[in-house]
Amino acid sequence: MPSPPPTVTPSAAALTAGRQVCARLDPLMTAVGSQAGSVGYGADEVGVVFCAQHAEFRSRFPGVAPDIDQPDDNACTDLNVYVDVRNQPRLAEVHLDGHGVDTLLADVGRDDLVTAAHALGRRTVRTDLDRLHGLLLEIFGRAASPAARKDWE
């Protein structure tokens, strides 16, 4: 019988990072139709997934990562946020089903903000989460269909 996978006990820094990501991004992500963040812990990393039902996401944001196509409309389109918690916790990676924030900004015509996306991970988690929040607001605000914009008013 195979042994069960080892259990990871999250560090205080990991627990804090997971809470920070959810506290900063849950309000925005739930407003755009995703579920609240689901946190997972690894030995050196925290991952937070914001899942949106694919068909609804596609109808709300037709211009965001237009090549994402799920064969099952009940599948999720996920925003994944990873924080490296070794030493000083930093954003390690952010992507929407494999599309980085820089690509998403280009999708909505905000090439002028790509440099800001490339700078994510160079500051504290709290500072970068504020920057990420602003970039996501720009992405989803510019890409929203008229019906989605109405939901935000």
Description:
- This protein is of the alpha+beta class and 153 residues long.
- It has one domain.
- Helices cover 42% and strands 20% of the residues.
- It is built from six helices and five strands; from the N terminus they run αββαβββαααα.
- It has a five-stranded antiparallel beta sheet with strand order 1-2-3-4-5.
- Taken from the alpha-carbon principal axes, the silhouette is globular
Which structural class do you get from the secondary structure elements? alpha+beta
Low-confidence stretches: none
The number of helical segments is 6
| Overall strand count | 5
- Major beta sheet, specifics? 5 strands, antiparallel
How far the N terminus sits from the C terminus, by CA atoms, comes to 56 Å
Give the averaged pLDDT, no decimals.
88
Rg calculated over all Cα atoms: 16 Å
Helix content: 40-55%
How many domains, in number, for the residues?
1
Main sheet strand line-up: 1-2-3-4-5
Order of helices and strands: HEEHEEEHHHH
Please state roughly what percent of the residues sit in beta strands, choosing from under 5%, 5-15%, 15-25%, 25-35%, 35-45% or over 45%.
15-25%
